[in-house]
Write a structure and sequence with these properties.
Length: 384
């Protein structure tokens, strides 16, 4: 004989209340200095969350508003636990990690955004999404990060926190996309546009990965974060290659995509170049010339749009983007000590290598800009 839905919901609510009590106890034990007990309770909370989601399945059977407030309470307690760890470290050492404070801010921002979004959905008479895989991964990462900070595992703290922040952003974007893909709200974004948007969303996190230790000297960074920065850049290049291919293959070429693709390239690449300035890989004047070219071409594209014309990407622009990506990858690869040591004689030229690569990138970028202006004389004649 199976239980009625009301009995299952009752058990689920009791379980959620017990998990909330566990989190309250974790907060108390943090301030009492009973770290081991707090860690044991965090592990218990992790197990209880798994039971709640995959055994009791409260997200699938709970009433909408109960589901919302139970999720909000759970998220708020996670925020309070992380904030307690941050404040405790700040009081004890006056040198608490900035990334931990940033993580706490993201937890709070995510909670507020989720609350407002969900209330809007319910007021429209719609159902909340149950299959939030990114959200579940983010919650799991946050709970694991709590344990890592409580255990004071210094080598893993920043890695876990950056991972948690990335997953929180991914879950927020996924939730927003679920909402706006509803035809009643907006026309759904194509897969190609989603790939393009991913570069814009992830670009700020490249900054944190590049400077995760608050040291402008990139050579001092952990090899783990150097590898992560390289992987992110390769991801940017892959999505840049795929979005256009998919848009054409699936017949989803759009005006939004034509504008968004070059914009996302410029956002990601210029952010990386600014990081190179800070760490000494590129002189300011080179990046300034690259910025001058990019902004000039974008101005030209805007002028064309004002006349109802779309200025398509030229082959020189595509080569420019590809060579910029290759140059960035070459510099980031060279910055990884074990890889640099594999190439005979590379150590002796490494000091000038990043600047030389950036010089080539600057020259190709300027040549591409000249090509755009020469090919767009018919647009300029309308304004000169």
């Amino acid at each position: 004989m199976t239980d009625s839905p009301s009995n299952i919901r009752l058990r689920s609510r009791i379980w959620s209340v017990l998990r909330a009590i566990v989190f309250v106890c974790v907060i108390a034990f943090i301030w009492l200095g009973m770290t081991k007990t707090a860690i044991a309770l965090v592990v218990a909370a992790l197990a209880m969350g798994w039971v709640s989601q995959y055994k009791l399945k409260f997200l699938e059977i709970e009433k909408p508003y109960y589901k919302l407030w139970l999720t909000i309470v759970d998220g708020f307690l996670s925020f309070v636990v992380m904030t307690s760890i941050f404040v405790r470290d700040l009081i004890k050492s006056e040198d608490a990690e900035i990334i931990l404070g940033v993580g706490c801010a993201f937890l709070l921002a995510r909670l507020i955004a989720f609350t407002l979004f969900s209330l809007g959905v319910l007021r429209e008479g719609k159902q909340l999404s149950n299959k939030r895989r990114w959200s579940k991964l983010a919650n799991l990462a946050v709970t694991i990060t709590m344990g890592v900070y409580l255990l004071n595992l210094e080598h893993y703290q920043q890695i876990c926190m950056v991972t948690s922040i990335l997953l929180m952003v991914a879950s927020t974007v996924a939730y927003a996309y679920w909402y706006y893909r509803d035809p009643a709200h907006r026309k759904p974004l194509s897969i190609a546009s989603q790939l393009t948007m991913s570069r814009i969303v992830l670009t700020p996190f490249f900054l944190w990965v590049f400077f995760y230790d608050n040291d402008l000297d990139y050579s001092n960074n952990s090899i783990v974060f150097k590898a992560l920065a390289l992987i992110m850049v390769l991801g940017f290049m892959l999505t840049d290659f795929l979005d256009g291919k998919l848009a054409r293959a699936m017949g989803e070429v759009s005006t939004l995509g034509k504008y968004l693709d070059p914009f996302s390239d410029k956002i990601s690449n210029m952010t990386i170049f600014m990081c190179f300035i800070a760490t000494g890989y590129a002189p300011v004047w080179m990046v300034a010339l690259i910025y001058f070219r990019e902004s000039s071409v974008e101005t030209l594209r805007t002028l064309a749009a004002s006349e109802g014309m779309i200025m398509p990407a030229r082959r020189s622009g595509k080569w420019k983007t590809a060579l910029q990506g290759i140059g960035i990858v070459a510099i980031l690869l060279g910055a990884i000590d074990p890889i640099r040591a594999l190439i005979p004689g590379f150590e002796s030229i490494w000091g000038m290598f990043p600047t030389a690569v950036m010089g080539v990138i600057t020259a190709i970028t300027l040549i591409s800009g000249v090509d755009y202006f020469v090919s767009s004389k018919h647009i300029l004649k309308k304004f000169v």
